[in-house]
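Researcher: We're teaching a course module on how sequence relates to structure. For the next exercise, students receive a sequence and then see the predicted structure as tokens, so they can try to spot secondary structure elements on their own. Here is the exercise chain.
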Amino acid sequence: METTELLDAILNFAIYFGVSILFLVIFKFVYTLVTPHDEWKLIREHQNTAAALGLGGAVLGFAIALSGAATNSISIADYATWGAIALLAQLFAFAILRYGFMPLIVQRIEKDEISAGVILATINVAIGLLNAACMSY
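Model: And here is the predicted structure for the students to work with:
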């Protein structure tokens, strides 16, 4: 590999990695705004394991989807578009779980019911995996 190619590769890595970190930060803020419970407060002040599991699963699921987008994108704009779609998919997954399958998920997370945190984390990771797989066009 020539020096120019190596520098281009490093620059591309830095751009994609920087955008990825930015997406993770944006996701954390958007996800915690959409959920009616305050995950950070529950985790920091109450050591709520269910909230930590749910939020951790959401971040992990989103990161998995981002990795699929990064792997399959043809440009940074393409990556950003699929990253935004991944963010929406994760929010949609929470809405489906909350309004369709477990209407009391928020109250159960607030009560630190570990089973609720585990199912929320599992759904979020599953959505992230499916999202990443569907981005392999």
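Model: If you want an answer key for the exercise: The radius of gyration is 17 Å. Residues 3-34 form the longest helix (32 residues).
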